[in-house]
Design goal:
The chain is of the alpha/beta class. The protein contains eight helices and ten strands.
């Protein structure tokens, strides 16, 4: 596991976006051989998306031959709802870059058969040959996507009931009213994420400090689903200094020593 420590959220966002740009450009995608990118929602990736849009506008990046798969979507929320993840992705990324509509894949939380929708999502990923790079965030309890604590580390895309804590955290997007937050979501599984050839997680802010510590220094455990990345052959964690507050000093110094480009 690589741990890239940046000074602040802006530096974190640029590093992550630049890594995506370099990964896509070195892949040299074509229509017949597209780059497959997994994407998250939430507050953590907004800065990354802002930088990716800037790269497309300055001509240093193109999404023309990129296929995307998003991590999750609420159940029962209309796609047009301002807090749906369909709306989020179009507002923050898709409507600003040269991606083809048919190359965008987001789970349908209004499908008649939710389990069939999840199974089909896995089939679509497999049909594309798997995901080349999956970017994600991490919850304050160490979850990735909507894989809450004690989710199976071998889980695939499925329907999940959201915990009260997750709904409270997400209520900031719903007028701070938890009752407006859907109780269920469709989400890729932990194994869906770790099956990707590379996984990059964004971790920013003091609130994520304990989650970062558990993910890096703790055991591999379903209590912290992000800890599954310890077993991944190509995992990158990009964090800011604020998120490192709970790490052992030796851990912090180790990653500062071996990684280039740390901005402290």
């Amino acid at each position: 596991m690589r741990v890239i420590i940046q000074k602040d959220y802006d530096k974190l966002s640029f590093w992550a976006a630049d890594h995506i740009r370099a990964s896509i450009n070195s892949f040299k995608p074509t229509a017949k051989r597209p780059f497959v990118l997994g994407l998250p929602t939430g507050s953590s990736p907004i800065g990354v998306y802002r930088n990716l849009v800037s790269f497309v506008k300055d001509g240093s990046l193109s999404f023309e031959n990129v296929v995307t798969f998003n991590m999750d979507e609420y159940v029962g929320l209309p796609e047009s709802h301002p807090q749906s993840y369909h709306s989020f992705m179009h507002e923050n990324l898709f409507s600003h870059v040269d991606i083809k509509k048919e190359n965008i894949n987001i789970l349908n939380g209004n499908a008649t058969d939710l389990e069939a929708e999840c199974a089909d999502y896995e089939r679509r990923i497999a049909k594309m040959g798997g995901i080349d790079l999956f970017m994600g965030g991490i919850g304050v309890d160490g979850h990735i996507a909507f894989n809450e604590p004690f989710s199976s580390l071998s889980s695939l895309t499925r329907v999940k009931t959201l915990t009260t804590d997750t709904r409270i955290v997400n209520s900031r997007f719903f007028d701070n009213d938890m009752e407006k937050v859907p109780k269920m979501a469709l989400t890729v599984g932990v194994k869906t994420v770790t099956n990707a050839r590379e996984v990059m997680l964004l971790v920013n802010g003091h609130a994520k400090a304990q989650a970062l510590k558990a993910m890096i220094e703790g055991p591999v455990s379903q209590a912290c689903t992000a800890s599954a990345l310890q077993m991944h052959p190509k995992a990158v964690v990009v964090c800011d200094r604020s998120a490192c507050g709970a790490l052992c000093l030796d851990t912090f110094d180790y990653f500062c020593d071996i990684e280039k480009g740390q901005i402290l």
